Amino acid sequence: MSSLQPVRGTHDLLPDDSRRHRFVEETAFSVVKRYGYGEIVTPIFEFTEVFSRTLGETSDVVTKEMYTFADRSGDSITLRPEGTAGVARAFISGGLAQSLPLKLFYRGPMFRHERPQKGRLRQFHQVGVELLGVEGPQADVEVVSMAYRLLCALGFGDKVQLEINTLGDADSRAAYRAALVSYLDPFRNALSEDSRARLDKNPMRVLDSKDENDKRIVANAPLIQDCLTPAAKEFFTQVTDGLAALGVPFVVSPKLVRGLDYYCHTAFEFTTTALGAQGTVLAGGRYDGLVGQMGGPATPGIGWAAGVERLSMLVETAPEPERPVAVIPMGDAMAALVLADRLRTAGLAVELGFSGNMKKRMARANKANARFAIILGEDEAARGAATLRDLDSGAQEEIALAALEERLLRS
Ligand code: ATP
Ligand code: MG
What we know:
With 411 residues, the chain is an alpha+beta fold. The chain is built from 15 helices and 16 strands.
């Protein structure tokens, strides 16, 4: 460890990177605002229990990935690994059950102690939404299609695939659990250690194993589809029919389960082949049991979260920063500073070279992608004027200093 290195799995966002990040975040917020979502900002740390009780004792996140520490008062604190648990906690502690349905958007850093690789960091960022208080499948349709519309707005709707599945209702899950255990139990000793533990606590999680041998065993396991109650089946049909009606392309993926324990009914992921192994860019599902399980009033919920780093990698062009105007003094440097200040106050972006000859300053203006250069020559200054050069066409004109704002704001 060197104290001057960033911590493994963390990175600095330099201006070009953060421009892409902001573009992703702002696009996400502007899309979900059209559906009536408002932003919630929860703390980036919570009492550890908020996560351990909700994400499930067998989830990878809780067993291996949380940044947990005792703070100076001896409380066990965890840096949030995901957003839903904190939002559910805020819902309960803030007594928000009176204001249902609730549509919330969040963004910000998340922390997981994983093996860093491309698209997998220890501090990463998510944008996400939670819709609380709506039971019916129309909510699932709207929330999933909203994710699709976001990916389209970012410019790569055609590069992702929506995989969707149902995890059924409580009765379907109980039946499935039994079927799965009786299928998996004879393979108990062949399963990985993690999967053996899950077999007892939460057998559906075995389906999510990344171990190659587990995958072979799971290949022939019974499917949740065979255990759905008629009501759960009908719910899923309404979700898929709804997506079809909205023209959202999807494939049903019968083995898709989500890594966290609180999901039911709809589970979905948007994946891409463009990012190598870390192909899931956005994932979510319905979590009707979560709020009740945390000790709040039973409240249905559905939501998704997307990795901003992974989305940023798919963004081809983020909007360029505003092109500045370069102010280039030939003599009086203070006059240039005063003019730059005046133009910035009027709302223009101004690039001011602090030193160097005319050639150097022009080179810097071009590097900053300046639209115009204002050259403050001494003779013109005496007449209260300057030279305005259009850096795209090369055309040049003399212009009164007093007329600059008007001229520049118009072009
Ligand atoms: P994975 O299967 O890639 O580990 P996950 O199921 O753990 O993903 P979720 O908890 O569903 O991921 O988080 C939602 C999204 O957040 C993921 O689809 C991904 O885009 C992003 N994400 C999750 N973990 C990381 C990470 N360590 N670094 C960067 N992005 C991440
Ligand atoms: Mg993970």
